Amino acid sequence: MSTAIRAEGLSKVYKIKAPQPNGSTRLIEKHALRDVSFELSEGEVFGIIGRNGAGKSTLLKILSRITVPTCGRVTVYGSVASLLEVGTGMHPEMTGRENIFLNGALLGMTKSDIVKQFDKILEFAGVAEYIDTPIKRYSTGMKLRLAFAVAAHLSADVMIVDEVLAVGDAEFQARCLSVMRDGMKTGRTTLFVSHNMAAVENLCSRVMWLDQGSIVRTGKPEVVVREYLGDAITAAGMTREFAPLSGDGHDPPVHFSRATVTGADGSAPVQGDDLLISLELDVRNQVRGLQILVALSTLEGNPVCSISNGDYRAEWDLQPGRYQVTVHLSSVRLMPQAHKVSLRSFVNWGAEVFEDWPDALTFHVLGRDVLGSGISLLADRGVTWIPARFELSILAG
C-alpha cells in the first residue's frame, strides 16, 4: 500500500518571553514537538491522543502547512483538507456558497467537479436555507457542519480533523464518523485528533499517544487508549482519607479510615467495565452482624443504586483490628459523567448506625463505545442503560 504521509524527526521550538525577578524579560525555548516520526498508508485512519498541550495541534498545523517545523521533514502525498477548528478555511465575509467554491479551487478542483458535489455538501451540512448568507452570521454548529461537509466531500487525498466531535449533537457526530470510515474505502487518509476515546477506539486503525511533544506509544487503539486513560486520570478525587479516631471515648466502634474508587485494573473507571470500591475499616470494639452500605449517585444527587453485604446475607462478626473491604461491581452501566459514593456502617439493618458519610468521595467515569456505534452513550441518555435487542418482522397483509 502506498505511503500517504511520512514525518521524519519533526521538532518545533517556540521562543517566548519569560519575566525575570528584576522586571526584565528573557527569551526561553518551549519545545512543542520533539523528534516525532511516523508513516501513514493510503486509506488509513490514524488517531492522535494526548493531554492539552501535548503537541497535537502543533503537529497538525505542520502537516497542514500552516507552520513549519524547527527541524525535521514531513512529506504529504496529495492534497490536504484540514479542519483544525470551527470555520477553518472559511472566509467570514464570504457566503457559504462562495466558501465551498473557494475551498474546492484551493484543492485543485474544477468548477464542474465542485458543482457535482455541491448538493451533497448542502445535504450533509443542513444549511441550504443560509447558503447565500455570509459565514460570519452562522452559528458555531452551522460553521462546523459546513466546514466538515466541505472537507469530506471535496476531493482531498488527506483529511486532517481536530476535535470535530467536540461540537454538534449525537446525530452529527455519527454522520462524521460514518464519513471518515467511508473514506477508508476510497483510499483517503484521515488524521483524527479527539478526546473522545470511544470514537478513537472505534474508528482508528492505529493510535499515537503524544505527551509533552514526544511520542509515548503508537499501536492498536484498544491498547494505547487503555494505557493513556490509566495514565491521564490521577487518583485525585477518587481517594479519600478520613480523619483518625480521636480516642476521647465518643468514637464509633467501626470507623472508615480510607475509601478508593478505581476500575478493575486499578486505573480510572470506564463505562461498562467493572468497578472496585476499596474501604479500610478501623474496628475498636467487637461487632456482630456488621453491614456496610455503598450507594452511588450522580453529581446532581440522582440515585443510581445502593447495595450492602447484608443484601447477600454476608454480615460480619469482627474483633478489634484493621480490615479492608473490597466491593466488586461487575460491568457497571454508568454514563460518562461525575458520580458520588456514599458510605454507611450499621448493625441490625440500620437500627444502630455507626457512621454515615453522604457524598464520601467523587469519581468520573470515562466514556467508551459500549454499543459499537462509534460514540459513547452520553449522560443526557439517563443515569444508566439497559442492554436491548431490536427485532423487525414483516406483518402479513
Short description:
With 397 residues, the chain is of the alpha+beta class. Helices cover 21% and strands 37% of the residues.
Structure report:
- It contains 7 helices and 18 strands.
- The model has no long low-confidence stretch (mean pLDDT 87).
- The chain has helices at 56-63, 96-106, 111-125, 140-153, 170-185, 197-203, 221-232; strands spanning 3-19, 25-41, 45-49, 71-76, 80-83, 158-162, 189-193, 206-211, 214-219, 239-241, 254-263, 275-283, 287-298, 303-308, 316-318, 321-329, 338-347, 352-364.
- The strands form 4 sheets. A 6-stranded mixed β-sheet has the order 5-6-7-3-8-9, sandwiched between helices.
- With 397 residues, the chain is of the alpha+beta class.
- Strand 17 and strand 18 form a beta hairpin.
- Helix 2 packs across helix 3 (111-125) and helix 3 (111-125) crosses helix 4 (140-153).
Question: Which helices and strands occur, and which strands form pairs?
Answer:
Elements (H helix, E strand, L loop, with lengths): L2 E17 L5 E17 L3 E5 L6 H8 L7 E6 L3 E4 L12 H11 L4 H15 L14 H14 L4 E5 L7 H16 L3 E5 L3 H7 L2 E6 L2 E6 L1 H12 L6 E3 L12 E10 L11 E9 L3 E12 L4 E6 L7 E3 L2 E9 L8 E10 L4 E13 L33
Parallel strand pairs: 3-7, 3-8, 5-6, 6-7
Antiparallel strand pairs: 1-2, 1-4, 8-9, 10-11, 11-12, 12-16, 13-14, 13-15, 13-17, 17-18
Helix pairs in contact: 2-3, 3-4
